[in-house]
């Protein structure tokens, strides 16, 4: 058997795990590991410019590929800088393994240089964490970390590595386990068959059904099953912000996103439904509006891998715990049997009436049936930018976003037909996510179009990554929806604070983004006229091997609609424009 | 409603902090907490009491179960169970009070485990409400110090919590 040092074990374990990229930043406590990477490791390392970006890049990679992202940072500030990205991954259940350096074992607890209690700081935002206490256990801990991160409800796992345990002179036997078993961790592998039968009966008896599917369908690779289910029953489908792409955006049965900035037809269909099939969704407060008024007439079937997600905010009538793909497969089988015996179900007449009602909602206020924004202003509308992006990329691009109005416009107007194409920080809402996440996606899919939709607020939170893109030639396209304000903050200040723009205005302080891109060895294009938009974007996407920064000046006063009326509103209570409400 | 939740936990560094952290993170209360290794040194048994309605208790047990270090748990208050707590009380005991306190201790089947010229240290075990009653009977004026172990519990009959 081979003898390896702790640092070499880490490098080798990452190879054995099939890791494609390490996103990281070196420092004192991880220098032994970096030396092992330099000497032996076949896994490429991407040197970011800030540890937060390493976590977001690994996160973007994980969202796009379904494989865990890997991060390597040093102790102290390296570890604390990674925290925001770990929390982002935790909130959206993204598989990630974070290797953080730690001061030498004998110094732990002595306030040593660059010491921080990483396990303590990260505890509420990780699925699990390990502190390595002996070199020999490194392979098994790394295997466990990958297993825990990527199984069940995925999430980030931190492995804290004291420097002395990676010392190149202390060598131990290396044996990477093929499998690990944890007696205290056994994610559900199948749904309960009795519950699945109950769900099937409820679905077949439904007269006004809706399928409400979330990020769990994307993470759980159950998009095909969801499509089959919805199409075989002719049921309408709405996706959460995290679930976009799980059901094809351009399909007739798709009602658009639901929730705070959800589509009129989606929110109304939910409110008036009699049966809701929730799949891999968690009844987030940005979806439900006031929980006491949530969908008063609906029976709720809730499928989720995480029992704690069920009946957390909204009580489920038929809870089913299990992996969404296997549960949906079982549900499809049961439905097939039941329908063979009762071919009249579901009630086609009732469904027809239901679809007529939905189409009426769609025609009156649906975002995709007519322009729902003012086209008479001299400005480019942010919605038009996303529509143009969707057209130019044929709806096939990977789109990452930051957080704010541009994120909601992208979610509303880009029609995602495939899962894992829409990459955004939904749960934590992390500004600065978009550019590093786009790097992770582009590295995984070098031939695909990768667009980062952002705003001048968010992009500046991780703009230093333009340098990483230059070093590794990562030709993502950045679409900066420039409006001169923190747009979403401004929108709320317009709506709730009588237009007092407290700290949401940049005045003349913004950089020349084109020059900035050029300073980082990239190029940029500024667009201010709608007539130039499509041609400019077409040209930008034709420049396959270049990172191009599109600085698109849009209407500074546009708001995102629909918008739930809160507090005390129900799903169907929405602002439809600045002056119009339901 | 008061509940007694009993948890089998991996006896690993950091495991307890994950349990305690969960409670503060999600805004649940811990009334008492008691933890020690079991006959299998790789496992700890943790007993905690908390107050909440059915929904809250369901959330607490689900989130506890989600922790990787938690092997198994049971809400003891759902079935017949035995609840015990140990208390050490130091009381001022002078003059006529000495006999009075001794009598009171006997009534509660406690033991005087340390005797000084003017103090008794008394050990009382039982369910939490019995210990409360004892303190009431002795009276605040005499009590100098109270140490309680927190509740331990076990199910009645054949039911066990094990691997």
UniProtKB/TrEMBL annotation, chain A:
Its EC number is 2.2.1.6. SUPFAM superfamilies: DHS-like NAD/FAD-binding domain, Thiamin diphosphate-binding fold (THDP-binding). The keyword Protein biosynthesis does not apply. Transmembrane segments: none annotated. Residues 5-118 form the Thiamine pyrophosphate enzyme N-terminal TPP-binding domain. The keyword Cell division does not apply. It comes from the Bacteria. Pathway: Amino-acid biosynthesis; L-isoleucine biosynthesis; L-isoleucine from 2-oxobutanoate: step 1/4; Amino-acid biosynthesis; L-valine biosynthesis; L-valine from pyruvate: step 1/4. Binds 1 thiamine pyrophosphate per subunit. Binds 1 Mg(2+) ion per subunit. This is Acetolactate synthase. It comes from Spongiibacter thalassae.
From TrEMBL, chain B:
It comes from the Bacteria. Keywords: Amino-acid biosynthesis, Branched-chain amino acid biosynthesis, Transferase. Residues 4-78 form the ACT domain. Pathway: Amino-acid biosynthesis; L-isoleucine biosynthesis; L-isoleucine from 2-oxobutanoate: step 1/4; Amino-acid biosynthesis; L-valine biosynthesis; L-valine from pyruvate: step 1/4. Its EC number is 2.2.1.6. It catalyses: 2 pyruvate + H(+) = (2S)-2-acetolactate + CO2. InterPro entries: Acetalactate_synth_ssu, Acetolactate_synth/TF_NikR_C, Acetolactate_synth_ssu_C, ACT-like_dom_sf, ACT_dom, AHAS_ACT, AHAS_small-like_ACT. The keyword Ribonucleoprotein does not apply. GO terms for molecular function: acetolactate synthase activity. PANTHER family: ACETOLACTATE SYNTHASE SMALL SUBUNIT, ACETOLACTATE SYNTHASE SMALL SUBUNIT 1, CHLOROPLASTIC. Belongs to the acetolactate synthase small subunit family. Catalyzes the conversion of 2 pyruvate molecules into acetolactate in the first common step of the biosynthetic pathway of the branched-amino acids such as leucine, isoleucine, and valine. Dimer of large and small chains. This is Acetolactate synthase small subunit. It comes from Spongiibacter thalassae. The gene is ilvN.
């Amino acid at each position: 058997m081979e003898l390896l040092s702790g640092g070499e074990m880490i490098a080798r374990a990452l190879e054995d795990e099939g890791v494609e990229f390490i996103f990281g930043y070196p420092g004192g406590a991880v220098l032994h590991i970096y030396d092992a990477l330099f000497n032996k490791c076949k896994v490429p390392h991407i040197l970011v410019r800030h540890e937060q970006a390493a976590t977001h890049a690994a996160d973007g990679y994980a969202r796009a590929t379904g494989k865990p992202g890997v991060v390597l940072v040093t102790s102290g500030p390296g570890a604390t800088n990674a925290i925001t990205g770990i929390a982002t991954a935790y909130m959206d259940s993204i598989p990630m393994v974070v290797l953080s350096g730690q001061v030498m074992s004998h110094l732990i607890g002595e306030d040593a240089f660059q010491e921080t209690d990483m396990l303590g700081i990260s505890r509420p935002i990780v699925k699990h964490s390990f502190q390595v206490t002996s070199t020999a256990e490194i392979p098994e801990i790394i295997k466990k970390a990958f297993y825990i991160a990527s199984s069940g409800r995925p999430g980030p796992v931190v492995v804290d590595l004291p420097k002395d345990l990676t010392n190149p002179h202390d060598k131990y036997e290396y044996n990477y386990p093929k499998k690990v078993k944890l007696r205290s961790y056994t994610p559900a592998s199948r749904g309960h068959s009795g519950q699945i039968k109950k769900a099937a009966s409820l679905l077949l008896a439904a007269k006004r059904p809706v399928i409400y599917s979330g990020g769990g369908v994307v993470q759980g690779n159950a998009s095909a099953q969801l499509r089959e289910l919805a199409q075989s029953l002719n049921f309408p489908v709405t996706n959460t912000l995290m679930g976009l792409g799980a059901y094809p955006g351009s399909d007739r049965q798709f009602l658009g996103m639901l929730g705070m900035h959800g589509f009129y037809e989606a929110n109304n269909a939910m409110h008036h439904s009699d049966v809701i099939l929730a799949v891999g969704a968690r009844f987030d407060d940005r979806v439900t509006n006031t929980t006491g008024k949530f969908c008063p007439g609906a029976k709720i079937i809730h499928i989720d891998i995480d029992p704690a997600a069920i009946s957390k905010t909204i009580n489920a009538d038929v809870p089913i715990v299990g992996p969404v793909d296997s549960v949906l497969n079982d549900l499809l089988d049961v439905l097939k049997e039941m329908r063979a015996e009762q071919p009249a179900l579901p009630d086609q007449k009732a469904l027809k009436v239901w679809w007529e009602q939905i189409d009426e909602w769609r025609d009156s206020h649906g975002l995709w049936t007519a322009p729902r924004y003012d086209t008479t202003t001299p400005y480019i509308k942010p919605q038009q930018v996303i529509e143009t992006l969707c057209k130019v990329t044929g709806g096939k691009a990977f789109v990452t976003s930051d957080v704010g109005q541009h994120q909601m416009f992208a979610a509303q107007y880009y029609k995602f037909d495939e899962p894992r194409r829409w990459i955004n920080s939904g749960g934590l809402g992390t500004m600065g996510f978009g550019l590093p996440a786009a790097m992770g996606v582009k590295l995984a899919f070098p031939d695909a179009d990768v667009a980062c939709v952002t705003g001048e607020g968010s992009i500046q939170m991780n703009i230093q990554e333009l340098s990483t893109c230059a070093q590794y030639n990562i030709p993502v396209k950045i679409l900066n929806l420039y409006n001169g304000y923190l747009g979403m903050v401004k929108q709320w200040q317009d709506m709730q604070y009588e237009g007092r723009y407290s700290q949401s205005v940049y005045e003349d302080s913004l950089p020349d983004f084109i020059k900035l891109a050029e300073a980082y060895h990239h190029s940029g294009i500024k667009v201010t006229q709608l007539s130039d938009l499509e041609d400019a974007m077409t040209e930008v996407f034709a420049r396959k091997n270049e990172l191009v920064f599109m600085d698109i000046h849009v209407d500074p006063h546009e708001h995102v609609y629909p918008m739930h009326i809160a507090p005390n509103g129900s799903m169907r209570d929405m602002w439809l424009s600045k002056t119009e409400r339901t | 409603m008061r509940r007694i939740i009993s948890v089998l936990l991996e006896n690993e560094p950091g495991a307890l902090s994950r349990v305690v952290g969960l409670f503060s993170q999600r805004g649940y209360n811990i009334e008492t907490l008691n933890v020690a290794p079991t006959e299998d040194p790789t496992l700890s048994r943790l007993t905690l009491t908390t107050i909440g309605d059915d929904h809250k208790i369901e959330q607490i047990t689900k989130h506890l179960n989600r922790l990787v270090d938690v092997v198994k748990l049971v809400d003891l208050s759902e079935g017949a169970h035995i609840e015990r707590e140990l208390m050490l009380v130091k009381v001022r005991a002078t003059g006529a009070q000495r006999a009075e306190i001794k009598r009171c201790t006997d009534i509660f089947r406690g033991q005087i485990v340390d005797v000084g010229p003017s103090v008794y240290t008394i050990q009382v075990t039982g369910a939490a409400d019995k210990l409360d009653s004892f303190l009431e009977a002795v009276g605040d004026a005499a009590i100098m110090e109270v140490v309680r172990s927190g509740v331990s519990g076990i199910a009645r009959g054949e039911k066990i919590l094990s691997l």
